Amino acid sequence: MPEGPSIVILREQAAGFAGRRVLRVEGNSKQDIGRLANRTLRAVRSWGKHFLLEFDGFFVRVHFLLFGSSRINERKAAPVRLGLGFSGGEELNLYACSVRIVEGAPEEVYDWRGDVLDPAWDRALARRKLKRHPQMLAADALLDQDIFAGVGNIIKNEVLHRIRVHPESRIGALPPRKLSELIDQAREYSFDFLRWKRAFVLKKHYQVHTKTVCPRDGERLQYRKQLGRAQRHAFWCAACQRLYE
């Protein structure tokens, strides 16, 4: 599943389509995508894991789910969920994703203070939200898009290892300093992810995600295929990541 940094990169790559008229629409989405034809794409935006195409009076929300992908000015051998054609033969093609047309403007739906990669990010707001869920697991908290929009499973695993917190620790049991570290690193690691992804070196920086040995102490990592409410893959070190209960 593409995480927030990957969506930011797609937003940047597709930014050149903003201000241009859609000349062709195709795809197997069940939404009324035909209404996009001959309309001007006003802006290309993102919020967390959502890729947003803004038109006058409505916008298209795209979520790439587990296996979604995109192509700009090229195609892949798969059915197009939503394809937009522009002048000069340029095109934006989206595959295996969720497409939804939402009436109104993105500002009426999204609070950019919750997006860890947005300039409007509000750490104090994230802290207040976390305080309301003392029994929530740290792993689930990081994946909660209402609190940390854009954080996905890779970031979750790496942040918890970076701050030495076991994924099954309860939010209410974390000392104030550890809670601050969790909030700050959710944002800081997301920017590290973005920088490494742009340089095509992201996987070289994995410390625990998909790994077998902890680089910090040499202990064999723990792995669970489904952990927490989110039931996502978890990798952690039992030696250096403390369980707060």
Describe the structure.
The chain has five helices and twelve strands. The protein is elongated. β5 (about 50-55) and β6 form a beta hairpin. It has two domains: about 5-110, N-terminal domain of MutM-like DNA repair proteins, CATH 3.20.190.10; about 115-235, Helicase, Ruva Protein, domain 3. The longest helix is centred in the C-terminal third of the chain and has 23 residues, at about 175-200. With about 240 residues, it is an alpha+beta fold. The strands form four sheets. It has a four-stranded antiparallel β-sheet, with helices on one face. The model has no long low-confidence stretch (mean pLDDT about 95). This is Endonuclease. Keywords: DNA damage, DNA repair, DNA-binding, Endonuclease, Glycosidase, Hydrolase, Lyase, Multifunctional enzyme, Nuclease.
Give the helix tally. 5
Strand order of the largest sheet: 2-8-9-7
Beta-strand portion reads 15-25%
CATH third-level topology of the largest domain: Helicase, Ruva Protein, domain 3
Q: What is the name of the CATH class of the largest domain?
A: Mainly Alpha
- The succession of helices and strands, N to C, reads HEEEEEEEEEEHHHHEE
